[in-house]
Amino acid sequence: MEQFSIVKRGYDPDEVDKYIATLEQVIKSYKDKDNAIKNAIISAQLAADNMIKNAQLQADEYKAQIGKELIKIREEVGRQRMRIQAFQDVYSGLVKKYLHEFNDSDMADLFNRLDDVERTLDILMGDETLSPKDDNFGAPPPTMDELY
Fold it and tell me: What angle do CA 30, 31, 35 make, to 5 degrees?
């Protein structure tokens, strides 16, 4: 604690005024530091909020891209299914024309594999977080006429 000189009517006013001025400077310094800390906290919070917002936008964009890719894959599976079916029809006709017996198990295995792929795609496309904002999402595959 500051010691003041005693004069006729109490403490020396100049010393008291000087001490009060020093205290005011210390208080102002603390207030300035407090304001700087508050501003830094606010800036950090704004930066964090922006980073979270940007990350969410980017995640949404990736999800939409994945959904669109799933649509393309599903369409390609449909096209391949139709091509295989057309091949099977031609092949079956040739075999029946030139051979007496025909084993359909090879084609059945192929179609079972395609069914598995389509079920997996249905599960992925049913995930709303991957569904793109597209009116054609989940549309049936193109017909033979549309392919040729």
Answer: 120
pTM of model > 0.85: no
Helices and strands in the chain, H and E counts: 3, 2
Compute, in degrees rounded to 10, the torsion defined by CA atoms 26, 32, 33, 34: 110
Q: Which residues are paired to 24 by β-bridges?
A: none
What are the extents of the domains in the chain? 6-147
Place of tokens 């606010």: 42
Q: Is 10 helix (H, G, I), strand (E, B) or coil?
A: strand
**Each residue of 17-49: pLDDT tens digit?**
999 999 999 999 999 999 999 999 999 999 999
- CA of 23: how far to CAs of 18, 20, 31, 130, in Å? 9, 5, 12, 63
Residue identified by tokens 């391949």 is: 80
